[in-house]
Write the C-alpha coordinates for this entry.
Amino acid sequence: MTQETGGFAALDLNPNIVAAVLATGYEEPSAIQQQSIPIILAGHDMIGQAQTGTGKTAAFALPILNKIDVSKREPQALILAPTRELALQVATAFETYAKQMPGVNVVAVYGGAPMGPQLRAIRNGAQIVVATPGRLCDHLRRDEKVLSTVQYLVLDEADEMLKLGFMDDLEVIFKAIPESRQTVLFSATLPSSIRSIAERHLREPKHVKIQSKTQTVTAIDQAHLMVHADQKIPAVLRLLEVEEFDALIAFVRTKQATLDLASALEAKGYKAAALNGDIAQNQRERVIDSLKDGRLDIVVATDVAARGLDVPRITHVFNVDMPYDPESYVHRIGRTGRAGREGRALLLVTPRERRMLQVIERVTGQKVAEARLPNAQAVLDARIKKLTNSLAPLVADAEASHGDLLDRLTEALGCSPRALASALLRKATNGQALDLASVEREQPLVPTYTPRERGERTERAERPDRGDRERRAPMPLAEGRVRCRTALGARDGIAAKNLLGAILNEGGLARDAIGRIQVRDSFSLIELPEEGLERLLSKLKDTRVAGKQLKLRRYRED
Ligand code: AMP
Protein backbone atom coordinates (compact mmCIF):
# COMPACT_ATOMS: atom_id res chain seq x y z
CA MET A 1 0.00 0.00 0.00
CA THR A 2 1.90 2.99 -1.19
CA GLN A 3 -0.28 5.75 0.22
CA GLU A 4 1.00 4.91 3.72
CA THR A 5 4.63 5.34 2.79
CA GLY A 6 3.46 8.55 1.12
CA GLY A 7 2.55 9.75 4.63
CA PHE A 8 6.19 10.03 5.68
CA ALA A 9 7.49 10.68 2.18
CA ALA A 10 5.24 13.72 1.89
CA LEU A 11 6.88 15.36 4.90
CA ASP A 12 9.90 16.70 3.06
CA LEU A 13 12.35 14.72 5.10
CA ASN A 14 15.66 13.43 3.81
CA PRO A 15 14.98 10.07 2.02
CA ASN A 16 17.49 8.33 4.27
CA ILE A 17 15.46 9.33 7.30
CA VAL A 18 12.20 8.21 5.67
CA ALA A 19 13.84 4.91 4.72
CA ALA A 20 15.00 4.32 8.31
CA VAL A 21 11.56 5.15 9.70
CA LEU A 22 9.86 2.78 7.29
CA ALA A 23 12.43 0.10 8.07
CA THR A 24 11.51 0.53 11.75
CA GLY A 25 8.02 -0.50 10.70
CA TYR A 26 6.17 2.79 11.09
CA GLU A 27 3.49 3.05 8.47
CA GLU A 28 2.33 6.63 8.74
CA PRO A 29 3.11 9.67 10.86
CA SER A 30 1.08 10.10 14.03
CA ALA A 31 -0.96 13.28 14.45
CA ILE A 32 1.73 15.05 16.50
CA GLN A 33 4.36 14.11 13.91
CA GLN A 34 2.19 15.26 11.04
CA GLN A 35 1.78 18.66 12.64
CA SER A 36 5.17 19.26 14.26
CA ILE A 37 7.58 18.09 11.58
CA PRO A 38 6.78 20.83 9.01
CA ILE A 39 6.94 23.52 11.70
CA ILE A 40 10.32 22.39 13.01
CA LEU A 41 11.69 21.91 9.50
CA ALA A 42 10.64 25.47 8.68
CA GLY A 43 12.77 26.73 11.56
CA HIS A 44 10.04 27.94 13.93
CA ASP A 45 10.13 27.70 17.67
CA MET A 46 7.35 25.43 18.85
CA ILE A 47 5.36 24.36 21.89
CA GLY A 48 3.94 20.87 21.56
CA GLN A 49 1.40 19.65 24.01
CA ALA A 50 1.72 15.89 23.93
CA GLN A 51 2.40 13.02 26.28
CA THR A 52 4.34 9.83 25.94
CA GLY A 53 2.69 7.48 23.51
CA THR A 54 1.75 10.08 20.92
CA GLY A 55 5.00 9.61 18.98
CA LYS A 56 6.43 12.92 20.20
CA THR A 57 10.04 11.70 20.16
CA ALA A 58 10.03 11.16 16.41
CA ALA A 59 8.09 14.43 16.04
CA PHE A 60 11.24 16.34 17.02
CA ALA A 61 13.95 13.76 16.26
CA LEU A 62 13.17 13.42 12.56
CA PRO A 63 13.27 17.12 11.64
CA ILE A 64 16.35 17.66 13.80
CA LEU A 65 18.19 14.86 12.05
CA ASN A 66 17.16 16.50 8.83
CA LYS A 67 18.72 19.78 9.92
CA ILE A 68 22.05 18.79 11.34
CA ASP A 69 25.16 19.07 9.23
CA VAL A 70 26.79 15.66 9.42
CA SER A 71 30.11 16.98 8.13
CA LYS A 72 30.47 19.23 11.18
CA ARG A 73 31.63 17.23 14.14
CA GLU A 74 30.36 19.43 16.96
CA PRO A 75 27.21 19.52 19.09
CA GLN A 76 24.36 20.97 17.04
CA ALA A 77 21.26 19.69 18.78
CA LEU A 78 20.63 19.41 22.50
CA ILE A 79 17.68 17.45 23.86
CA LEU A 80 16.92 17.84 27.56
CA ALA A 81 14.97 15.10 29.30
CA PRO A 82 13.96 14.77 32.96
CA THR A 83 15.27 11.27 33.68
CA ARG A 84 18.10 9.04 32.70
CA GLU A 85 15.62 6.48 31.31
CA LEU A 86 14.03 9.02 29.02
CA ALA A 87 17.41 10.40 27.94
CA LEU A 88 18.54 6.91 26.99
CA GLN A 89 15.27 6.21 25.23
CA VAL A 90 15.50 9.42 23.20
CA ALA A 91 19.15 8.78 22.32
CA THR A 92 18.26 5.28 21.12
CA ALA A 93 15.38 6.69 19.05
CA PHE A 94 17.78 9.13 17.37
CA GLU A 95 20.18 6.30 16.61
CA THR A 96 17.38 4.23 15.09
CA TYR A 97 16.17 7.04 12.85
CA ALA A 98 19.76 7.89 11.85
CA LYS A 99 20.63 4.30 10.86
CA GLN A 100 20.96 5.23 7.22
CA MET A 101 22.82 8.51 7.86
CA PRO A 102 26.46 7.58 8.30
CA GLY A 103 28.46 9.99 10.42
CA VAL A 104 25.69 10.92 12.86
CA ASN A 105 26.83 10.59 16.45
CA VAL A 106 24.53 10.74 19.45
CA VAL A 107 25.66 10.94 23.04
CA ALA A 108 23.54 10.47 26.15
CA VAL A 109 24.63 12.46 29.18
CA TYR A 110 23.26 11.59 32.61
CA GLY A 111 24.31 11.23 36.20
CA GLY A 112 25.69 8.08 37.74
CA ALA A 113 28.09 7.37 34.90
CA PRO A 114 31.64 8.75 34.78
CA MET A 115 31.84 12.27 33.38
CA GLY A 116 35.09 11.95 31.43
CA PRO A 117 33.87 9.65 28.64
CA GLN A 118 30.68 11.73 28.23
CA LEU A 119 32.63 14.94 27.82
CA ARG A 120 35.05 13.25 25.43
CA ALA A 121 32.14 11.96 23.33
CA ILE A 122 30.71 15.48 23.14
CA ARG A 123 34.06 16.93 22.14
CA ASN A 124 34.81 14.11 19.72
CA GLY A 125 32.11 15.05 17.30
CA ALA A 126 28.68 14.09 18.63
CA GLN A 127 26.21 16.28 16.77
CA ILE A 128 23.30 15.32 19.03
CA VAL A 129 23.49 15.48 22.81
CA VAL A 130 20.65 14.06 24.87
CA ALA A 131 21.04 15.05 28.49
CA THR A 132 19.45 15.35 31.88
CA PRO A 133 19.77 18.96 33.09
CA GLY A 134 21.63 18.19 36.33
CA ARG A 135 24.49 16.33 34.73
CA LEU A 136 24.71 18.72 31.82
CA CYS A 137 25.24 21.58 34.26
CA ASP A 138 28.10 19.61 35.83
CA HIS A 139 29.68 19.48 32.38
CA LEU A 140 29.10 23.18 31.88
CA ARG A 141 30.96 23.88 35.09
CA ARG A 142 33.96 22.03 33.68
CA ASP A 143 33.72 23.52 30.21
CA GLU A 144 31.46 26.52 29.78
CA LYS A 145 31.90 26.46 26.00
CA VAL A 146 30.65 22.93 25.54
CA LEU A 147 27.24 24.04 24.22
CA SER A 148 28.40 27.06 22.24
CA THR A 149 27.73 25.42 18.85
CA VAL A 150 24.20 24.21 19.64
CA GLN A 151 21.56 25.48 17.20
CA TYR A 152 18.57 23.33 18.11
CA LEU A 153 17.29 22.90 21.63
CA VAL A 154 14.46 20.58 22.64
CA LEU A 155 12.94 20.42 26.10
CA ASP A 156 11.23 17.07 26.34
CA GLU A 157 8.64 16.56 29.09
CA ALA A 158 9.27 20.11 30.27
CA ASP A 159 6.61 19.89 32.98
CA GLU A 160 8.34 16.85 34.46
CA MET A 161 11.67 18.66 34.45
CA LEU A 162 10.17 21.49 36.46
CA LYS A 163 8.44 19.09 38.84
CA LEU A 164 11.79 17.48 39.49
CA GLY A 165 13.32 20.83 40.40
CA PHE A 166 15.41 21.48 37.31
CA MET A 167 14.28 25.08 36.84
CA ASP A 168 17.61 26.65 37.87
CA ASP A 169 19.60 24.19 35.81
CA LEU A 170 17.47 25.00 32.77
CA GLU A 171 18.20 28.69 33.16
CA VAL A 172 21.94 27.97 33.27
CA ILE A 173 21.65 25.85 30.13
CA PHE A 174 19.60 28.46 28.22
CA LYS A 175 22.39 30.96 28.90
CA ALA A 176 25.07 28.61 27.58
CA ILE A 177 23.43 28.19 24.16
CA PRO A 178 23.58 30.86 21.45
CA GLU A 179 20.40 32.96 21.30
CA SER A 180 20.09 32.36 17.58
CA ARG A 181 19.02 28.79 18.31
CA GLN A 182 15.67 27.21 17.46
CA THR A 183 13.83 26.01 20.55
CA VAL A 184 11.12 23.36 20.79
CA LEU A 185 9.32 22.57 24.01
CA PHE A 186 7.21 19.47 24.58
CA SER A 187 5.07 19.15 27.65
CA ALA A 188 2.01 17.10 28.57
CA THR A 189 0.60 20.05 30.50
CA LEU A 190 1.14 23.80 30.22
CA PRO A 191 1.08 25.25 33.74
CA SER A 192 2.04 28.90 34.21
CA SER A 193 5.66 27.98 35.01
CA ILE A 194 6.01 26.41 31.55
CA ARG A 195 4.28 29.31 29.85
CA SER A 196 6.67 31.67 31.59
CA ILE A 197 9.70 29.72 30.33
CA ALA A 198 8.22 29.83 26.84
CA GLU A 199 7.68 33.59 27.05
CA ARG A 200 11.23 34.20 28.14
CA HIS A 201 13.10 31.74 25.97
CA LEU A 202 11.07 30.95 22.85
CA ARG A 203 10.54 33.28 19.89
CA GLU A 204 7.02 33.51 18.51
CA PRO A 205 6.44 29.83 19.07
CA LYS A 206 3.85 27.95 17.05
CA HIS A 207 1.51 25.83 19.15
CA VAL A 208 0.70 22.24 18.38
CA LYS A 209 -1.88 20.38 20.33
CA ILE A 210 -3.71 17.27 19.46
CA GLN A 211 -7.29 18.38 19.83
CA SER A 212 -9.56 15.78 21.28
CA LYS A 213 -13.28 15.95 20.94
CA THR A 214 -15.34 14.09 23.49
CA GLN A 215 -16.36 10.77 22.07
CA THR A 216 -18.93 8.36 23.27
CA VAL A 217 -18.44 4.70 23.54
CA THR A 218 -21.30 2.45 24.38
CA ALA A 219 -21.87 -1.26 24.78
CA ILE A 220 -18.17 -1.89 25.11
CA ASP A 221 -16.74 -3.27 28.28
CA GLN A 222 -13.33 -1.63 28.66
CA ALA A 223 -10.40 -2.49 30.89
CA HIS A 224 -6.70 -1.83 31.04
CA LEU A 225 -3.71 -3.75 32.34
CA MET A 226 -0.34 -2.42 33.36
CA VAL A 227 2.51 -4.38 31.81
CA HIS A 228 6.08 -3.75 30.84
CA ALA A 229 6.71 -3.53 27.12
CA ASP A 230 8.70 -6.76 27.01
CA GLN A 231 5.89 -8.69 28.67
CA LYS A 232 3.13 -7.84 26.27
CA ILE A 233 3.18 -11.08 24.31
CA PRO A 234 3.06 -13.37 27.38
CA ALA A 235 0.33 -11.12 28.80
CA VAL A 236 -1.75 -11.45 25.63
CA LEU A 237 -1.31 -15.23 25.62
CA ARG A 238 -2.49 -15.44 29.19
CA LEU A 239 -5.47 -13.17 28.64
CA LEU A 240 -6.58 -15.18 25.65
CA GLU A 241 -6.80 -18.27 27.83
CA VAL A 242 -9.69 -16.84 29.80
CA GLU A 243 -11.36 -14.36 27.49
CA GLU A 244 -14.28 -15.97 25.72
CA PHE A 245 -13.99 -14.45 22.30
CA ASP A 246 -15.43 -15.17 18.95
CA ALA A 247 -13.13 -13.11 16.76
CA LEU A 248 -10.52 -10.69 18.01
CA ILE A 249 -8.47 -7.90 16.58
CA ALA A 250 -5.19 -6.99 18.26
CA PHE A 251 -3.73 -3.57 17.48
CA VAL A 252 0.01 -2.92 17.47
CA ARG A 253 2.11 -0.08 16.13
CA THR A 254 4.58 -1.60 13.74
CA LYS A 255 4.71 -4.15 10.98
CA GLN A 256 7.27 -6.14 12.91
CA ALA A 257 4.98 -6.24 15.93
CA THR A 258 2.12 -7.62 13.79
CA LEU A 259 4.43 -10.43 12.66
CA ASP A 260 5.85 -11.14 16.12
CA LEU A 261 2.50 -11.36 17.85
CA ALA A 262 0.78 -13.28 15.04
CA SER A 263 3.52 -15.90 15.04
CA ALA A 264 3.46 -16.22 18.84
CA LEU A 265 -0.29 -16.78 18.61
CA GLU A 266 0.02 -19.33 15.82
CA ALA A 267 2.65 -21.18 17.80
CA LYS A 268 0.06 -21.54 20.58
CA GLY A 269 -2.45 -22.98 18.14
CA TYR A 270 -4.60 -19.92 17.53
CA LYS A 271 -5.87 -19.25 14.04
CA ALA A 272 -4.15 -15.90 13.70
CA ALA A 273 -2.74 -13.72 10.94
CA ALA A 274 -0.91 -10.42 10.61
CA LEU A 275 -2.30 -7.48 8.69
CA ASN A 276 0.06 -4.63 7.90
CA GLY A 277 0.82 -2.14 5.19
CA ASP A 278 3.19 -4.55 3.43
CA ILE A 279 0.46 -7.06 2.76
CA ALA A 280 -0.85 -6.98 -0.79
CA GLN A 281 -4.46 -6.00 -1.32
CA ASN A 282 -5.67 -9.43 -2.46
CA GLN A 283 -3.98 -11.12 0.50
CA ARG A 284 -5.56 -8.52 2.80
CA GLU A 285 -8.98 -9.36 1.44
CA ARG A 286 -8.32 -13.06 1.99
CA VAL A 287 -7.40 -12.39 5.61
CA ILE A 288 -10.56 -10.34 6.20
CA ASP A 289 -12.76 -12.97 4.53
CA SER A 290 -11.16 -15.66 6.68
CA LEU A 291 -11.87 -13.63 9.79
CA LYS A 292 -15.47 -13.21 8.68
CA ASP A 293 -16.12 -16.87 8.08
CA GLY A 294 -14.17 -18.26 11.02
CA ARG A 295 -11.12 -19.70 9.27
CA LEU A 296 -9.25 -17.10 11.28
CA ASP A 297 -10.07 -15.96 14.81
CA ILE A 298 -7.41 -13.34 15.47
CA VAL A 299 -6.01 -10.62 13.28
CA VAL A 300 -3.03 -8.62 14.49
CA ALA A 301 -3.10 -5.28 12.71
CA THR A 302 -1.68 -1.80 12.57
CA ASP A 303 -4.16 1.08 12.48
CA VAL A 304 -3.46 1.70 8.84
CA ALA A 305 -3.99 -1.90 7.79
CA ALA A 306 -7.20 -2.21 9.80
CA ARG A 307 -8.81 0.76 8.07
CA GLY A 308 -12.25 -0.13 6.81
CA LEU A 309 -12.17 -3.55 8.44
CA ASP A 310 -15.72 -4.30 9.52
CA VAL A 311 -16.36 -7.81 10.75
CA PRO A 312 -19.44 -8.39 12.91
CA ARG A 313 -17.90 -11.52 14.49
CA ILE A 314 -15.38 -9.39 16.37
CA THR A 315 -16.17 -9.59 20.07
CA HIS A 316 -12.82 -8.35 21.39
CA VAL A 317 -10.33 -5.64 20.66
CA PHE A 318 -6.91 -5.88 22.29
CA ASN A 319 -4.95 -2.65 22.24
CA VAL A 320 -1.58 -4.30 22.65
CA ASP A 321 0.21 -1.07 21.79
CA MET A 322 -1.32 2.19 22.86
CA PRO A 323 -3.10 4.20 20.15
CA TYR A 324 -1.60 7.62 19.40
CA ASP A 325 -4.63 9.59 20.41
CA PRO A 326 -8.04 9.08 21.98
CA GLU A 327 -9.82 9.30 18.62
CA SER A 328 -7.92 6.36 17.34
CA TYR A 329 -8.67 4.47 20.58
CA VAL A 330 -12.38 5.06 20.08
CA HIS A 331 -12.06 4.10 16.45
CA ARG A 332 -10.22 0.90 17.29
CA ILE A 333 -12.61 -0.31 19.95
CA GLY A 334 -15.55 0.55 17.73
CA ARG A 335 -14.63 -2.60 15.77
CA THR A 336 -16.37 -4.56 18.44
CA GLY A 337 -19.84 -4.13 19.85
CA ARG A 338 -21.18 -4.10 16.31
CA ALA A 339 -24.77 -4.85 15.45
CA GLY A 340 -25.94 -4.25 18.99
CA ARG A 341 -23.67 -6.94 20.42
CA GLU A 342 -21.65 -6.57 23.55
CA GLY A 343 -17.97 -5.99 22.97
CA ARG A 344 -14.89 -6.06 25.12
CA ALA A 345 -11.83 -3.87 24.76
CA LEU A 346 -8.58 -4.40 26.62
CA LEU A 347 -5.73 -1.92 26.68
CA LEU A 348 -2.19 -2.77 27.68
CA VAL A 349 -0.48 0.21 29.28
CA THR A 350 3.23 0.45 30.05
CA PRO A 351 4.06 2.48 33.14
CA ARG A 352 5.23 5.46 31.10
CA GLU A 353 1.98 5.58 29.16
CA ARG A 354 -0.33 6.03 32.11
CA ARG A 355 -0.94 9.67 31.21
CA MET A 356 -2.24 8.63 27.83
CA LEU A 357 -4.70 6.40 29.64
CA GLN A 358 -5.93 9.40 31.62
CA VAL A 359 -6.38 11.38 28.42
CA ILE A 360 -8.42 8.55 26.92
CA GLU A 361 -10.57 8.43 30.03
CA ARG A 362 -11.10 12.18 29.90
CA VAL A 363 -12.00 12.25 26.24
CA THR A 364 -14.34 9.28 26.39
CA GLY A 365 -15.77 10.44 29.71
CA GLN A 366 -15.41 6.92 31.04
CA LYS A 367 -13.16 5.17 33.49
CA VAL A 368 -11.22 2.32 31.98
CA ALA A 369 -11.04 -0.03 34.95
CA GLU A 370 -7.83 -1.79 35.86
CA ALA A 371 -7.92 -5.52 35.25
CA ARG A 372 -5.46 -8.07 36.54
CA LEU A 373 -3.92 -10.86 34.61
CA PRO A 374 -5.61 -14.18 35.27
CA ASN A 375 -3.66 -16.40 37.65
CA ALA A 376 -2.81 -20.04 37.02
CA GLN A 377 -6.03 -21.21 38.69
CA ALA A 378 -8.16 -19.07 36.39
CA VAL A 379 -6.25 -20.36 33.36
CA LEU A 380 -6.79 -23.94 34.51
CA ASP A 381 -10.51 -23.36 35.13
CA ALA A 382 -10.88 -21.85 31.67
CA ARG A 383 -9.08 -24.78 30.05
CA ILE A 384 -11.25 -27.31 31.85
CA LYS A 385 -14.35 -25.38 30.89
CA LYS A 386 -13.31 -25.42 27.23
CA LEU A 387 -12.60 -29.13 27.39
CA THR A 388 -15.95 -29.77 29.04
CA ASN A 389 -17.72 -27.74 26.38
CA SER A 390 -15.96 -29.58 23.60
CA LEU A 391 -16.87 -32.97 25.07
CA ALA A 392 -20.48 -32.13 25.97
CA PRO A 393 -21.97 -32.80 22.55
CA LEU A 394 -20.04 -36.09 22.28
CA VAL A 395 -21.09 -37.80 25.48
CA ALA A 396 -24.77 -37.88 24.62
CA ASP A 397 -24.55 -40.66 22.06
CA ALA A 398 -21.01 -41.96 22.46
CA GLU A 399 -21.99 -44.78 24.77
CA ALA A 400 -24.42 -46.21 22.20
CA SER A 401 -21.80 -46.18 19.46
CA HIS A 402 -18.60 -46.87 21.39
CA GLY A 403 -19.73 -48.48 24.69
CA ASP A 404 -19.13 -52.00 23.50
CA LEU A 405 -15.70 -51.09 22.21
CA LEU A 406 -14.87 -49.63 25.62
CA ASP A 407 -15.83 -52.92 27.30
CA ARG A 408 -13.68 -54.89 24.88
CA LEU A 409 -10.69 -52.61 25.34
CA THR A 410 -10.82 -52.53 29.12
CA GLU A 411 -10.97 -56.29 29.11
CA ALA A 412 -8.13 -56.62 26.62
CA LEU A 413 -5.99 -54.10 28.48
CA GLY A 414 -6.96 -55.39 31.89
CA CYS A 415 -7.65 -51.86 33.12
CA SER A 416 -10.56 -49.95 34.59
CA PRO A 417 -12.80 -47.73 32.41
CA ARG A 418 -11.35 -44.80 34.43
CA ALA A 419 -7.81 -45.73 33.44
CA LEU A 420 -8.78 -46.05 29.80
CA ALA A 421 -10.78 -42.81 29.76
CA SER A 422 -7.79 -41.06 31.37
CA ALA A 423 -5.43 -42.40 28.71
CA LEU A 424 -7.78 -41.24 25.96
CA LEU A 425 -8.03 -37.82 27.59
CA ARG A 426 -4.29 -37.52 27.76
CA LYS A 427 -4.10 -38.31 24.06
CA ALA A 428 -6.95 -36.00 23.14
CA THR A 429 -5.55 -33.05 25.08
CA ASN A 430 -2.21 -33.48 23.43
CA GLY A 431 0.04 -32.74 26.36
CA GLN A 432 -1.80 -29.58 27.41
CA ALA A 433 -1.21 -28.71 31.05
CA LEU A 434 -4.44 -29.47 32.91
CA ASP A 435 -3.41 -29.44 36.55
CA LEU A 436 -2.41 -26.46 38.62
CA ALA A 437 1.26 -27.30 39.08
CA SER A 438 1.75 -27.86 35.34
CA VAL A 439 0.00 -24.61 34.41
CA GLU A 440 2.16 -22.74 36.88
CA ARG A 441 5.30 -24.31 35.47
CA GLU A 442 4.30 -23.72 31.90
CA GLN A 443 3.88 -19.96 31.92
CA PRO A 444 5.71 -17.90 34.48
CA LEU A 445 3.19 -15.44 35.83
CA VAL A 446 3.37 -12.11 34.13
CA PRO A 447 3.03 -9.64 36.95
CA THR A 448 0.86 -6.56 36.81
CA TYR A 449 0.89 -3.66 39.20
CA THR A 450 -1.66 -2.93 41.81
CA PRO A 451 -2.59 0.77 41.77
CA ARG A 452 -0.65 1.32 44.97
CA GLU A 453 2.51 -0.28 43.64
CA ARG A 454 2.08 1.59 40.43
CA GLY A 455 2.18 4.98 42.12
CA GLU A 456 5.29 4.08 44.05
CA ARG A 457 7.09 2.62 41.09
CA THR A 458 6.43 5.42 38.72
CA GLU A 459 7.54 7.92 41.27
CA ARG A 460 10.79 6.09 41.54
CA ALA A 461 11.07 5.86 37.80
CA GLU A 462 10.88 9.58 37.50
CA ARG A 463 13.20 10.50 40.25
CA PRO A 464 15.53 13.26 39.17
CA ASP A 465 18.77 12.15 37.75
CA ARG A 466 21.22 13.11 40.44
CA GLY A 467 24.01 11.13 42.00
CA ASP A 468 24.53 7.42 41.92
CA ARG A 469 21.45 6.19 43.68
CA GLU A 470 19.08 3.51 42.51
CA ARG A 471 17.04 5.53 40.10
CA ARG A 472 15.54 3.02 37.77
CA ALA A 473 12.05 1.69 38.51
CA PRO A 474 12.29 -1.79 39.96
CA MET A 475 10.61 -4.30 37.71
CA PRO A 476 7.51 -5.96 39.10
CA LEU A 477 8.21 -9.32 40.69
CA ALA A 478 6.74 -12.58 39.47
CA GLU A 479 4.58 -14.38 42.00
CA GLY A 480 6.62 -16.39 44.48
CA ARG A 481 9.80 -14.45 43.78
CA VAL A 482 11.65 -12.01 46.00
CA ARG A 483 14.49 -9.65 45.28
CA CYS A 484 17.87 -10.12 46.93
CA ARG A 485 20.69 -7.63 47.05
CA THR A 486 24.45 -7.84 47.14
CA ALA A 487 26.80 -4.94 47.61
CA LEU A 488 28.84 -6.19 44.63
CA GLY A 489 28.22 -4.25 41.45
CA ALA A 490 29.75 -3.18 38.17
CA ARG A 491 32.50 -1.25 39.92
CA ASP A 492 33.67 -4.53 41.46
CA GLY A 493 33.97 -5.95 37.96
CA ILE A 494 30.77 -7.97 38.33
CA ALA A 495 28.57 -8.94 35.37
CA ALA A 496 25.20 -10.68 35.55
CA LYS A 497 26.70 -13.92 34.28
CA ASN A 498 29.13 -14.06 37.23
CA LEU A 499 26.26 -13.80 39.70
CA LEU A 500 24.20 -16.32 37.77
CA GLY A 501 27.10 -18.79 37.63
CA ALA A 502 27.79 -18.50 41.35
CA ILE A 503 24.17 -18.99 42.37
CA LEU A 504 23.62 -21.88 39.97
CA ASN A 505 26.77 -23.69 41.06
CA GLU A 506 26.74 -23.07 44.76
CA GLY A 507 23.04 -22.65 45.39
CA GLY A 508 22.07 -25.72 43.37
CA LEU A 509 19.15 -23.92 41.74
CA ALA A 510 17.70 -24.63 38.31
CA ARG A 511 18.28 -21.86 35.74
CA ASP A 512 14.61 -20.97 35.49
CA ALA A 513 14.39 -20.51 39.27
CA ILE A 514 16.50 -17.37 38.92
CA GLY A 515 14.73 -14.28 37.63
CA ARG A 516 16.12 -10.98 36.49
CA ILE A 517 19.59 -9.92 37.55
CA GLN A 518 20.22 -6.18 37.59
CA VAL A 519 23.81 -5.09 38.00
CA ARG A 520 24.24 -1.48 39.07
CA ASP A 521 27.39 0.38 39.80
CA SER A 522 27.55 -0.21 43.52
CA PHE A 523 25.15 -3.10 44.05
CA SER A 524 23.14 -5.78 42.25
CA LEU A 525 19.62 -7.14 42.58
CA ILE A 526 18.69 -10.72 41.84
CA GLU A 527 15.23 -12.27 41.76
CA LEU A 528 15.05 -15.59 43.57
CA PRO A 529 12.30 -17.99 44.69
CA GLU A 530 10.79 -17.08 48.04
CA GLU A 531 10.35 -20.72 48.89
CA GLY A 532 13.52 -22.08 50.44
CA LEU A 533 15.14 -18.65 50.44
CA GLU A 534 16.65 -18.94 53.93
CA ARG A 535 18.21 -22.26 53.01
CA LEU A 536 19.58 -20.85 49.79
CA LEU A 537 21.05 -17.79 51.48
CA SER A 538 22.78 -19.93 54.07
CA LYS A 539 24.22 -22.16 51.30
CA LEU A 540 25.61 -19.05 49.66
CA LYS A 541 26.95 -17.68 52.95
CA ASP A 542 30.61 -18.06 52.04
CA THR A 543 30.30 -17.71 48.29
CA ARG A 544 32.76 -15.38 46.63
CA VAL A 545 32.36 -13.75 43.24
CA ALA A 546 35.24 -12.01 41.50
CA GLY A 547 37.25 -12.60 44.67
CA LYS A 548 34.77 -10.82 46.94
CA GLN A 549 32.17 -12.08 49.37
CA LEU A 550 28.73 -12.17 47.80
CA LYS A 551 26.79 -11.53 51.05
CA LEU A 552 23.37 -11.88 49.51
CA ARG A 553 20.46 -10.51 51.57
CA ARG A 554 16.75 -10.27 51.04
CA TYR A 555 16.01 -6.79 49.72
CA ARG A 556 12.92 -5.04 51.01
CA GLU A 557 11.69 -2.33 48.76
CA ASP A 558 9.56 -0.25 51.09
P1 AMP B 1 6.74 8.40 22.13
O1 AMP B 1 5.40 9.03 22.31
O2 AMP B 1 7.68 9.24 21.35
O3 AMP B 1 7.32 7.91 23.42
O4 AMP B 1 6.54 7.10 21.18
C1 AMP B 1 5.80 6.01 21.60
C2 AMP B 1 6.06 4.76 20.75
O5 AMP B 1 5.48 4.91 19.45
C3 AMP B 1 7.52 4.42 20.52
O6 AMP B 1 7.65 3.05 20.79
C4 AMP B 1 7.75 4.70 19.05
O7 AMP B 1 8.70 3.80 18.52
C5 AMP B 1 6.38 4.48 18.45
N1 AMP B 1 6.11 5.32 17.28
C6 AMP B 1 6.34 6.65 17.15
N2 AMP B 1 5.92 7.09 15.95
C7 AMP B 1 5.38 6.03 15.30
C8 AMP B 1 4.77 5.85 14.01
N3 AMP B 1 4.60 6.86 13.17
N4 AMP B 1 4.34 4.61 13.70
C9 AMP B 1 4.50 3.58 14.57
N5 AMP B 1 5.07 3.68 15.78
C10 AMP B 1 5.51 4.88 16.16
Observations:
- Residues 26, 29-30, 33, 52-58, 253-254 surround adenosine monophosphate (CB under 6 Å).
- The radius of gyration is 27 Å.
